[in-house]
Amino acid sequence: MLPLTADPTWFPPTAHASPDGLVAYGGDLTPERLLAAYRRGIFPWFNDDEPPLWWSPDPRCVLRPSELRVSHSMRSVLRKGTFELRLNTACAAVLDGCAQTPRPDQDGTWITPAVRAAYVALHEQGYVHSAEAWQDGALVGGLYGLRLGGVFFGESMFSWVPNASKFAFIRWVELLAADGVALIDCQIETAHLRSLGAQLMPRRAFETELTQLLTA
């Protein structure tokens, strides 16, 4: 683990990461640095009382759109039209929803005002996208992440009502697949992501495929 320099495009090789995937610390959250990080398979994740921490876990949790699993109960939800999908109409509100959602074994949220502002700025530049579940005119769930080439980097999701985030995730993955996205980065494995078809991938293989999909 090394400190970042003033050069916003420089990151140390991920081979030097700590066993839990910590690559570097410090720096800032400018669009240039964030985009440089994601292009290397590195993402920020830190508490409000810490400097920016930059991660690249090994193995990596990923989902191939062709391997998306939709349960029988979710197929019923999709057929019933319980939710309406909207894209990029309330990105800041989705970030707020993710920040306000309690997480197991996590006190508070990493989506601080500075982080929120950084991802809203990337949204305004066309890199960050929100997939939103609406019900009776209200935002009830959704997710946000960053799209680069044939890769979507999922960041966080939330639900105020059951199945809202799953609905947004499934419909968004379907749209990404139709638009040529071949890999969805889920970062850290969870039981919820596994149930949707996510799998673990060695970091080196992930980085190789990431390079190919960004230059294709």
What key attributes describe this structure?
single chain, 216 residues, 7-stranded mixed beta sheet, globular, alpha+beta
Task: Describe the secondary-structure layout.
Layout: E1 2-3, E2 22-25, H1 31-39, E3 43-44, E4 53-55, E5 60-63, H2 72-80, E6 84-87, H3 91-100, H4 113-124, E7 128-135, E8 138-148, E9 151-159, H5 164-178, E10 183-187, H6 191-195, E11 199-201, H7 203-215
Parallel strand pairs: 1-2, 9-10
Antiparallel strand pairs: 2-4, 3-4, 5-10, 5-11, 6-7, 7-8, 8-9
Judging from the principal axes of the Cα atoms, what is the shape? Answer: globular
Please outline the major beta sheet.
7 strands, mixed
For the largest beta sheet, what order do the strands appear in spatially? 6-7-8-9-10-5-11
> Portion of residues in helices?
25-40%
The helix count comes to 7
Give start-end ranges of low-pLDDT stretches.
none
Instruction: Please state the CA-atom Rg, rounded to the nearest Å.
Output: 17 Å
What do the pLDDT scores average to? 95
Output the helix-strand order: EEHEEEHEHHEEEHEHEH
Structural class: alpha+beta
Strand content: 25-35%
Structure characterization notes:
This protein is an alpha+beta fold. 34% of the residues lie in helices and 25% in strands. It is built from 7 helices and 11 strands. A 7-stranded mixed β-sheet has the order 6-7-8-9-10-5-11, sandwiched between helices. A 4-stranded mixed β-sheet has the order 1-2-4-3, covered by helices on one side. A hairpin with a 2-residue loop joins strand 7 (128-135) and strand 8. It is globular, with a radius of gyration of 17 Å. The mean pLDDT is 95.
